[in-house]
User: Fold this.
Amino acid sequence: MKNKIYLFTVLFSVLLFAGCGNSKGGGGFNLFTIDQDKELGAQVMQEIESNPAEYPILDSAKYAAAYKYVYDIRNKVLNSGEVKHKNDFAWRIRIVGDDKTLNAFCTPGGYIYIYTGLIKYLESEDALAGVMGHEIAHADLRHSTQQMTKIYGVQVLLDLLAGDRQMIKEITTGLIGLKFSRSHETEADAASVRYLCGTDYYAGGGAKFFEKIAAEGGAQPPQWLSTHPSPDNRIEHFHNEALERGCSGNQEYKQRYQQLINALPR
Assistant:
């Protein structure tokens, strides 16, 4: 009974202030708490890592050099001072051994997955840092649970509190394949630049994936960098954001990036 009274108090407060979100801060209407983001992320992580046929994750001990490399990039992003939930979420990385897939994603609560296909497709460390910044932003700005709030509404909290396992399963499955809105993608792009701006990387590194796609004839970008807004607009947005913020970093680390590629399975 005590839990139910608390829940309805929270729901009333959330609904009362639902219109007060700040789009720049990822403050859209969200019925989920930070703890629920963490719990949902852990559930999604378990779903992913119990399915090695679809998600062949590289062993972190066997490929220690590759994991150290990507964790070093992650640490630069997290230590920028711009990641709001740096100390709240896990920010755990797993590399998916699939060379055919150009993909990366981050669950609520900060579980990051990067495909070897994407790593090998990119040509510089700042480009991968830009992608990682974009994915970290989706979790940091809590875009997934904002989207799930729109889909499920108030009832989801009641069912989760009641321990509805079917609802939890449905939500975790939905989170794995979740598509973000145009505004969420734009926010994540801007946040990627903001995170990298205080590092020695070129802060607009996230544009380089799109630039390579364009140079090869405009192939369809993968879901993690959707076409909303268009790739051309996103290239411009990355570069303009870095320029407007006065970001001074210019390091690409192209030669060093080969160390990461060489550390992956051939």
